[in-house]
Inverse folding.
């Protein structure tokens, strides 16, 4: 199972607000060749990490089934982000759309992009809440801890369903 995190905190020139962008991004993921949507979480609102004066993010997780190599998937996700006006400026900046590969089954990659599982997903309530909504028994491939255990161990990170 392939897990993709979706996030947005800026509108883009087509007039879409972040929630619309996230819904449209799910549709775009459903069009990727060799993959199909298995589950989609509800949407969650969270403050930016690290804290800043940016608007809150809308976040969710999509589980995909199918076969694709990590480099091809990353390239496809970047193409979707670009279609939604994503501009890569500085790290942790506000963005129209952010698509991250959280995990690809039990695959572990440490030295080539994309790093798998995502190196900070287990530190983010805005990833773990929606992920656990669709896969309540998920276990982190390298840490061998349940998502629930990881979430319980996080410092307070305000995150609520939209």
């Amino acid at each position: 199972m392939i897990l993709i995190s979706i996030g947005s905190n800026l509108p883009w020139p087509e007039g879409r607000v972040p929630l619309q962008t996230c819904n449209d991004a799910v549709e775009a993921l459903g069009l990727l060749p060799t993959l199909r949507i298995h589950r989609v979480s509800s949407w969650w609102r969270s403050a930016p990490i690290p804290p800043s004066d940016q608007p809150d993010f809308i976040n969710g997780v999509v589980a995909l089934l199918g076969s694709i190599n990590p480099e091809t998937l990353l390239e496809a996700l970047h193409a979707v982000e670009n279609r939604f006006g994503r501009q890569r400026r500085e790290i942790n900046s506000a963005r129209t759309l952010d698509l991250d590969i959280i995990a690809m089954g039990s695959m572990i990659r440490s030295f080539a992009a994309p790093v798998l599982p995502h190196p900070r997903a287990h530190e983010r309530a805005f990833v773990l809440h929606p992920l656990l909504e669709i896969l309540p028994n998920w276990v982190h491939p390298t840490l061998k801890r349940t998502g629930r255990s990881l979430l319980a161990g996080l410092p307070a990170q305000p995150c609520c369903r939209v």
The chain has one domain: 2-161. The first strand starts at residue 2 and ends at 8.
